[in-house]
Design brief:
The chain is mostly helical. It has five helices and two strands, in the order αββαααα. Strands 1-2 form a two-stranded antiparallel ribbon. It is globular, with a radius of gyration of 14 Å. The protein starts with 11 loop residues before the first helix and ends in a 5-residue tail after the last helix.
């Protein structure tokens, strides 16, 4: 049985993928900067502490639990499902950004 949305807010994943204006209208897709903010939040970092070049071993929260969290949030927020081998290939913020671009979630 599908969940019923009780208010007019967009689903959680849509609020990450799409940007909405004050009137609720769609104003565009997520930018790379917004994706970096999403990744920073996911790994409990501030956006100022990471960049597209940041490597996995530079973020303490990108451990085995962080990998599970990343998998869950990619699915929940963006409907991106990755196989285990694809997840293991993610070694930097730029790798995550590339997956999001490949799946049409970043403009």
């Amino acid at each position: 049985m599908a969940a019923t949305q009780l208010n007019n807010d967009p689903p959680r994943w849509q609020s990450h993928v799409f940007r909405f204006g004050n009137d609720g209208g769609l104003i565009g897709f997520m930018t790379t900067s917004e994706a970096i903010e999403w990744i920073a939040d996911l790994f409990e970092e501030t956006p100022d502490n990471i960049s597209i070049e940041t490597k996995r071993d530079e973020m303490p929260a990108w451990d085995s639990l962080g990998i599970l969290t990343l998998m869950a949030r990619l699915d929940e927020d963006f409907e991106i499902l990755l196989a285990e081998d694809e997840i293991q290939e993610l070694r930097s913020v730029s790798d995550i950004i590339a997956v999001m671009q490949k799946n049409g979630k970043i403009q």
